[in-house]
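pls design
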């Protein structure tokens, strides 16, 4: 059994931040459960383009408001608490945060925590260490 709090991972290697976003990686590939689970916050007024070519991501917005723009299909979706979106087609997308947004995210395959978005917003596929 694994029990963790976001408080205990704050400030560790599981707490990753970029310009206008922060991701607390609660469950990672090294935990060997087949997915990773993150709490992600997006700063108010920020915009981010992501494209997960190697991962499927499910996102549940628990706090804040913004817009999800599916860049592959030119469709925009309003987001508010209780909204969920699933990037099951590896859609390139833009998140626009009207207010600070807090989301719970699941990735499959799991991320290891070492991934960095490339210039296209893509995470590379990195295998979790064995052991």
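designed seq:
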């Amino acid at each position: 059994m694994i029990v963790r709090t976001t408080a205990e991972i704050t400030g560790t290697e599981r707490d990753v931040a970029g310009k206008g976003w922060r991701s607390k990686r609660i469950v990672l590939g090294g935990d060997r459960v087949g997915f990773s689970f993150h709490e992600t916050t997006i700063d108010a007024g920020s915009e981010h383009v992501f494209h997960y070519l190697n991962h499927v991501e499910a996102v549940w917005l628990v706090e804040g408001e913004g817009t999800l723009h599916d860049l592959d299909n030119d469709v925009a979706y309003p987001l508010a608490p209780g909204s969920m979106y699933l990037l099951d087609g590896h859609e390139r997308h833009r998140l626009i945060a009207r207010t600070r947004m807090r989301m719970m995210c699941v990735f499959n395959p799991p991320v290891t925590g070492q991934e960095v978005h490339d210039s296209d917003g893509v995470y590379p596929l990195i295998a979790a260490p064995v052991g």
